[in-house]
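Hallway conversation turned thread

IA: we were arguing at lunch whether anyone had actually written out BRCT domain-containing protein end to end. Turns out nobody had. So, for the record, here is the sequence (344 residues) and right after it the structure tokens. Reply here if something looks off.
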Amino acid sequence: MGPKNATSVPIPVNPKALAGKSVIITGEIDGQSRKSAEQILVNAGATIEKSLNKKVQLVVLGENAGPAKLEKIEKLGLETKEWDELIEEIKTEGGEEPASGEDEDEEMNDEEETEEEPEPEPEPKPKSKPTKGKAKANTKAKAGPAPAKAKPGTSSSGFSITGKTVIITGTIPGHDRKQAQAIVEEHGATVAKSLNKSVELAILGSNAGPEKLAKIEEQGIETIHWNDMAEKLGLEVTPEKEVADVETGGAPDSIDGKTVIITGTIKGHTRSAAQKLLESAGATYAKSLNKSIQLVVLGTNPGPDKLDKIAEMGIDTCSFEALIEKLGLEAEASEPPKKKAKKA
């Protein structure tokens, strides 16, 4: 559980995304207290279980989840999902207001989507060919591209996902995860809940997690980028949001007394271990991007919205590796223990 005085970041979510699901959180949630993290899931329609039991339908994994807990989760055969991955699926942009009592914060939540009013459902027609339909795509708050329209049948190039078991990873421009899944299902594919031996094709969006990509490569799964697939199937592609060009600055001689924050993945280290290393050099670690921050320490794959805000605020940056070397700190590898529980 995170520290009690951590500033909680409100995240607007689809109120029906987890409707009827019994969930439990284990591990530390970056930027959230346990209570605020649970409230976000409740806002999405979930019921919070107080202990691991057979009623639990989904385990949400944070950082540093206990090995004994993970072993019990695997023994019970419970579905698991990383916090960041789940939030990517259920969040909206500016939709539902956070529940009263949640603290407001300035931290950006990457690639959030705006939910539109649902279109009227067409009258059901007899099934003979793969279903025709219009994918109910959400558009970005600032941009207004047309929703992707699914065209029936196999493409002229012969490419088809009909009958294939696929998985989607990363951010799909103009669509939340459920909408992207609906589009591929309309073209006859089955969407797997986790990376497993049944998956035949991995559809990649932007900022796909390094661990996911490594696992996809390890399992020898065929991959295709969403935009390439969309072109082959005749879908209209929503342009990706331009990301601010944030240059990595030089590492300072000292961070003693400076307020800092890390964004992105620090190779070989958990976020908490990297944070403690900076604090050992005299830095104060911030829980969110705000005006008090004097230095942003960059890892790999920082979120586009985070980069936009860093550029907008004009905060100095440097890489984690350069900073550690400049300060002469000894950074021992602190990879989190491999989770044995299956991930969704």
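OS: looked through it. Confidence is low (pLDDT under 50) at residues 1-6, 94-120, 126-153, 334-344.
IA: good, adding that to the notes. The first strand starts at residue 22 and ends at 26.
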